Amino acid sequence: MTKGYRIQAATGIHRGDRDYQQDQVCLLHHPREEGCLLAVIADGMGGRSGGRKASDQVMLTTRQLFDRFDPEGDDPQTLLRQIVQEAHMVIKLTAVSSEQEPHSTIAAFLVRPNGESHWIHAGDSRVYHFHNGQLVFRTMDHSYVQTLINQGEISEEEALDHPHSNILMACLGTENEPPIDLHHINTLSEGQALMACSDGVWHYFTPEELASTITMLSPREACEFLIQKARTRAKGMGDNLSMVIVKFEPLS
To answer: Is 65 strand, coil or helix?
Structure first.
């Protein structure tokens, strides 16, 4: 067990200005290994019931596989791949049986007792890594506007107001296999924080705003503040919001 920090964590979810909730979020503590946790965000798409079915399936698959995961002997990246691949397959089967088109994003991070962290994502839900109030790294969206940013055609700021900002290049439940984009942090330490969130959250904040908010506030307070501020900035047009914040605090 890594020494030197204690874990504080919270989740937040809100319907926003939508008529129904398609986002889902979970923060799971391993039933047999203290200090091992898994955070997952899923943003469902495909109509009222279709999108919710897709995000629900991500949560169900996550819980089932994490319960069988052995933190001492199993490979965490294999676990994350299995979550994405199995949720993708079941969502596709749901589409056949229900005659709907359910899809979902996913953004997940696993924290191991030795201080390692492993991430995976598909779509435009994100994972952020902060250290002492600064952004260290974030996932890159599988979206049309992210492709334009990567090609140097538009800026990050221009992407927020782009007319095609909602177009995804990949997610779970489509005909194509989802991307397996993994990220690894060797050792987490005090002063660091991880955040997973849907686009209904990150769309309204700069990385600097997210970093300072998470640094100054407890995870629960930060979730409440970010939801309230995003709702204000959305001006009645906001999407569903969901997030998980995990902070690594000094033991003292």
So the answer is: helix
